[in-house]
Amino acid sequence: MTITNGLVAGATPAAASGPEHVEEAVAYDAILLTSFGGPEGQDDVIPFLRNVTGGRGIPEERLEEVAHHYRAFGGISPINAQNRALKAALEEELAQRGIDLPVLWGNRNWAPYTREAVAEAHERGFTKLLAIGTSAYSSYSSCRQYREDYANALDATGLAGVIQIDKVRQFFDHPGFVTPFIDGVIQGLADAAAAGFTPAETHVLFSTHSIPSTDAAKSGPASRNFGPGGAYEAQHLAVAEVVMDAAETAAPWSLVYQSRSGPPSMPWLEPDISDAMRDLAAAGTKAFVIVPLGFVSDHMEVKWDLDTEAMETAEELGAFAVRVPTPGIHPAYVSGLIDLVLERVQGTPTAERPALTDLGPWYDVCRSGCCENVRLGFKPALAGLAP
């Protein structure tokens, strides 16, 4: 069982009482980079998908349907290679700034697992870890499930009460995350213009991973009253507005969703990107700038759902389409992640923390009940107030 010190389980003393923002300096020992994980060969695909869907009773035939996305790329998800590159880029940035913080890396669903990174921390004598989850927005799968994974890792290693884990804030509106998308949209619109399409003929599609409507409604603290789409939808819409304002374009835009995986009987966020493209083309749109706003790097969902399926839809419609890059290891993104670490290392006052929307800066310590999974209920989680 995860040990609670103060109100926040497994937290450093500065975060243990549950402040919205920790404005006290903390001498962390290491950074814990955490991600989704992905298979690195054909034999890994089904075991990986079983990990992802564990406890949900997904039949093997459905797993095989999803598996063909991975098999089309040799059974290799790009995500692990991308995280190795990000880890190296973070280490280089830290060295350039003269910051002595090792970077450990662990995944939720495939090796190296978070529990292995926590065990490594213990072996190296580290007791205070600051986690970075490679997901910018608030929802069960993009925030709370990471926090549950930290709790599981401490329990699995028997290190609850020995190692403390805090987490940087969700960074959806941090300049380091948003700047690469601004650059990408400006270039994408230029590409459409060079191909002969006017702003009025071009539609910017901000795409993110669809999630169950019940999860969306529970994303973020209930006290903020974000509405049916919760903080998840509100954050994406706010960031898209920032990007379009910075691009200084008259082109129309909308938020769309992708990668739905639930049964037809369960409502998920809509519209699907391909459905939206067909409707827009019928209304006169001739060019699409596709922005993977919900992704920090070229995950399988980007390579398959956008680079494969959405591009096939554009070809079917006879429309021009260009996909904007994800942040990846863009210098602004890498630098921004280290800035987020330094917020906690230095105890930066909230008023001095950058946020490009009125929704932020987001919380250092997740609020009580934030990002509930209605189907699974509350499980132990670190870096937030219970439950």
Describe the global form.
globular
Lateral arrangement of strands in the main beta sheet: 4-3-5-6
Structural class: alpha/beta
End-to-end distance: 14 Å
Number of domains: 2
Q: Main beta sheet, described?
A: 4 strands, parallel
Number of strands: 10
Instruction: Give helix % range.
Output: 25-40%
Query: What fold name stands as the CATH topology of the largest domain?
Result: Rossmann fold
Order of helices and strands: EEEHHHEHEHEHEHHEHEHEH
The CATH architecture name of the largest domain reads 3-Layer(aba) Sandwich
Task: Indicate the mean pLDDT.
Answer: 96
Strand fraction equals 5-15%
GO molecular function, one term: metal ion binding
Binding site for Fe-coproporphyrin III: 77, 146
Subcellular location: Cytoplasm
Main location: cytoplasm
Explain what the structure shows:
The chain has about 375 residues and is α/β, with parallel strands linked by helices. It is built from 11 helices and 10 strands. The strands form 3 sheets. The chain has a 4-stranded parallel beta sheet with strand order 4-3-5-6, with helices on both faces. α10 (about 300-315) links the parallel β9 (about 285-290) and β10. It is globular and about 60 Å long. The mean pLDDT is about 95.
Topology of this structure?
Layout: E1 4-5, E2 8-9, E3 30-35, H1 45-52, H2 60-71, H3 79-97, E4 103-107, H4 114-123, E5 128-133, H5 140-157, E6 164-167, H6 175-194, E7 202-209, H7 213-217, H8 230-247, E8 253-258, H9 273-282, E9 287-291, H10 300-317, E10 320-323, H11 331-346
Parallel strand pairs: 3-4, 3-5, 5-6, 7-8, 7-9, 9-10
Antiparallel strand pairs: 1-2
Helix pairs in contact: 1-2, 3-11, 4-5, 6-8, 6-11, 9-10
Family: Belongs to the ferrochelatase family.
Binding site for Fe-coproporphyrin III: 77, 146
Function: Involved in coproporphyrin-dependent heme b biosynthesis. Catalyzes the insertion of ferrous iron into coproporphyrin III to form Fe-coproporphyrin III.
